[in-house]
Amino acid sequence: xxxxxxxxxxxxxNSYQKEQxxxxxxxxxxxxxxxxxxxxxxxxxxxxxxxxxIIQSHKESKPDAILFEPLTSTALQRVGEAAVNAGIGWIVLxxxxxxxxxxxxxSNVPAFAITRDHTEIGRIQGRQFAALLxxxxxxxxxxxxxxxxxxIQRTTGLExxxxxxxxxxxxxxxxxxxxxxxxxxxxxxxxxxxxxSIDLVGCQYDGIAMGALKAxxxxxxxxxxxxxxxxxxxxxxxxxEEGQAWVDRGMLAATIxxxxxxxxxxxxxxxxxxxxxxxxxxxxxxxxxxxxxDQLATRGKQMASQKTRKSL
Length: 312
What we know:
The chain is of the alpha/beta class. Helix content is 46%, strand content 18%.
């Protein structure tokens, strides 16, 4: 069989996406395939243009499949149609889309999604908040971009799972540490942004949590700074060298382990091409709270007890 060629298009180069790229590169090496990695710099128009140029290139240079993580909920439907019409497989990463069934009807090339269940990620966060705040409280919740379907679904999941005695104050950030730092730094300049009004800082990405933490570390008021730094911070992704390590060091209270999707996606494409079959339309990756919800509940009870003693 000829050497298969893949293009992997990622929305940005944050830590999770770098892990996605590394997983794709390693998978290509193990599977005897070639892979080209593209970054869209958080620009959906750029992502569309990059992929259309590849789809419209000379036949001999076209890839066998494109694996991409979209920046918007529309997920480049027209580009996907162009790809399968050109005989190029279309694999959507980390996003649920409603047009794959149609693509699978108009072409025999692989067309499927492999994703983390973002709504379930939000539900797990809601359970983490409940475990850490057994008596309820106020959460500063830092979401991803408003145009991101992942951010929207994570918020929906959170709202469905959190107890009614937990109130959420939401801020928006790009999927980066720098953006979160700027967002929180601006918010802290408001007269109403005091540590006494927030019991937990929950973030939709570990990098956002770290950017927020650094903003609090740089708070101009030393007394407020110390209060903020005693509040638990949580994130999502749980990379071994970042989210998991930050939890182990006590910098974060919790994260959610969410595996990369590129490696399995490439393996599924190769199997599909070899066997001439379509993989399942949607495959979900396993998710897990880190630490476990039971461990977080134990910590939550300890924090509640300490808070009660201080108030006496």
